[in-house]
Design a protein that fits this description.
By secondary structure, this protein is mainly alpha-helical. The chain is 29% helix and 4% strand. The chain has a two-stranded antiparallel sheet with strand order 1-2. The longest helix is centred in the middle third of the chain and has 18 residues, at 48-65. It is elongated, with a radius of gyration of 27 Å. The termini are far apart. 0% of the residues are buried. This is Cytochrome P450. InterPro entries: Cyt_P450, Cyt_P450_sf. Pfam families: p450 (PF00067).
């Protein structure tokens, strides 16, 4: 015996949901701060904080695992002196 209960019908049952025929996204989540909506724009991403945390952790691991220094004969002035200030920063030749 197979028992089926159509989700469409359940989702519109007034015994289960208040105002079942209205679109109320807030009824589906307990934490509205983790929901990304189209009004957040093309770069609104709920995974962005996790991605930034991963980048920070990766940078810290690289800096602590390796010794960084300028090439012989370099002191960093040419590197920083040729920087061009734009919307993003572009550095001179390394």
């Amino acid at each position: 015996m197979t028992l089926m209960c159509p989700q469409y019908v359940l989702g519109r049952d007034e015994q289960i949901y208040e105002r079942p025929k209205e679109s109320l996204p807030e009824r589906w989540h307990l934490h509205p701060e983790v929901v990304s909506t189209p009004r957040d724009g093309p770069y609104g991403c709920i995974g962005k904080p996790l991605a930034l945390l991963t980048l920070r952790n990766t940078l810290v691991r690289l800096v602590t695992m390796f010794d960084f220094e300028f090439a012989p004969g370099e002191d960093g002035t040419a590197f920083e002196g040729k920087a061009k200030d734009r919307f993003t920063m572009g550095y001179g030749d390394l």
